């Protein structure tokens, strides 16, 4: 582990850049869940939506809990649910400039699922990227077996604010392609598994200035927590795994990633 972990102790500060806090086990138990996360150094949680019907719930949550920030978008895994009016709804929500909205997301491409309906996915993605550009917002991107296709789409739209490719598990060259376009790489629980050799090596080699931390809670359980819902406080465990992989002192890793996150999402770096 990098030097400096012990002296940082409980003073490390984190932002979980990807947590579906509007789902169980958090829904109905938000205050306790926030307290648990705060006790482990989590100062902010970014909550992306998956569908239009979740927009208002997430926006209401972030108004109730100052620790939370929102992203609104149409997730590609739910392509069967999305209708044309959902993009119009998203446009209306973005135009209203809700409090504590920091990104368009979770959006992207997914070619891993059965019947991915790529053309529909592409149409909805392009519409959302256009909205992000119009409203000068970064994007939170989902990508499974679609990194090269997604890179092409991002290259054509040229967003000024960029975004993050969340839960990245592609190759070094694919990560570098996203970074060249101005995107960050989301580091999640995958790196806590020793068997994830490729992802761990990629994250070890990328510039620290390009990395963000996330949990994707309640999904993507960490090593040692298989079968349990993931939780935002476990972003600390992701950080500890990252420190094992990186040469920089843990103090530098923590502060650099904090600043990366604040810069991307326009969050105040003080708390």
Tell me the distance between the termini: 27 Å
What is the CATH architecture annotation? Answer: Alpha-Beta Barrel
CATH class: Alpha Beta
| Uncertain runs | 1-8
CATH topology: TIM Barrel
Word description of this protein:
There is one protein chain. With 271 residues, this protein is α/β, with parallel strands linked by helices. It has one domain: Metal-dependent hydrolases (TIM Barrel). Helix content is 40%, strand content 15%. The chain has ten helices and eight strands. An eight-stranded parallel beta sheet has the order 1-2-3-4-5-6-7-8, with helices on both faces. β1, α2 and β2 form a beta-alpha-beta unit. α4 packs parallel to α5. The longest helix has 17 residues. The radius of gyration is 17 Å and the shape is globular. The two termini are 27 Å apart. The N terminus is likely disordered.
Secondary-structure map with pairings?
Blueprint (H helix, E strand, L loop, with lengths): L4 H4 L5 E3 L13 H10 L2 E7 L6 H10 L3 E5 L11 H12 L5 E10 L7 H17 L4 E6 L2 H11 L5 E3 L6 H9 L2 E5 L9 H9 L5 E3 L21 H11 L4 H16 L6
Helix pairs in contact: 4-5
In short:
It contains ten helices and eight strands. The protein is α/β, with parallel strands linked by helices.
């Amino acid at each position: 582990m990098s030097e400096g972990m012990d002296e940082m102790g409980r003073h490390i500060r984190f932002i979980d850049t990807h947590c579906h806090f509007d789902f169980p086990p958090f829904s109905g138990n938000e205050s306790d869940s926030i307290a648990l996360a705060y006790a482990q150094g989590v100062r902010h949680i970014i909550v992306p939506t998956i569908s239009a019907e979740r927009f208002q719930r997430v926006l209401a949550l972030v108004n109730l809990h100052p620790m939370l920030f929102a992203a609104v978008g149409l997730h590609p895994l739910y392509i069967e649910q999305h209708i044309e009016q959902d993009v119009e709804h998203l446009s209306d929500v973005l135009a209203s400039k809700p409090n504590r909205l920091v990104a368009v997301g979770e959006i992207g491409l997914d070619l891993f699922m059965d019947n991915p309906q790529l053309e529909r996915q592409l149409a909805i993605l392009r519409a959302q990227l256009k909205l992000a550009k119009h409203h000068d917002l970064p994007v939170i991107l989902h990508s499974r077996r679609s990194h090269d296709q997604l890179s092409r789409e991002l290259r054509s739209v040229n967003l000024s604010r960029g975004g993050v490719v969340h839960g990245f598990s592609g190759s070094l060259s694919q990560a570098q392609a996203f970074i060249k376009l101005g995107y960050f790489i989301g580091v999640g629980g995958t790196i806590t598994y020793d068997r994830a050799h490729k992802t761990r090596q990629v994250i070890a080699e990328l510039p620290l200035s390009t990395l963000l931390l996330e949990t994707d809670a309640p999904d993507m359980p960490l090593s040692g927590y298989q079968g349990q819902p993931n939780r935002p406080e476990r972003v600390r465990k992701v950080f500890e795994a990252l420190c094992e992989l990186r040469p920089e002192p843990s103090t530098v890793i923590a502060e650099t990633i904090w600043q990366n996150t604040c810069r991307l999402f326009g969050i105040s770096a003080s708390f």
